[in-house]
Amino acid sequence: MPSQERTPTMSTMPAMKEFRTETTPEGILHLIFDMPGRSMNVFSNAAIHEIDAFATWLKTSTVRGVVIRSGKTSAFCAGADLGELGEAYDMIVAARPAERKRIARDHFAPIGRAFRKLETAGKPVAAAIDGLALGGGCEFAMGCHYRVLTDTPRTALGLPESLVGLLPGGGGTQRMPRLVGLERSLPILLEGARLSPQEALEAGAADEVVAAGGEVATAERWVLGATVPAQPWDRPDWHAPDVQAVSEALGQTRARILAETGGHYPAPLAILDCIEQGLPAAIDDALGSEIDIFADLIKRPEPRNMIRSLFIGRQDYDKRRKADALPGALASFVADVRAAVESADAGLGDMRPEALRFAGFTAEGSYPADPAEIAGREVPWFEKPGSPMEEAALKIVAATAGVARAYGSAFAESERALADFAAVTQAGFPSYLGGPFAVLEQ
Question: What pLDDT sits at residue 348?
Answer without folding.
Answer: 78
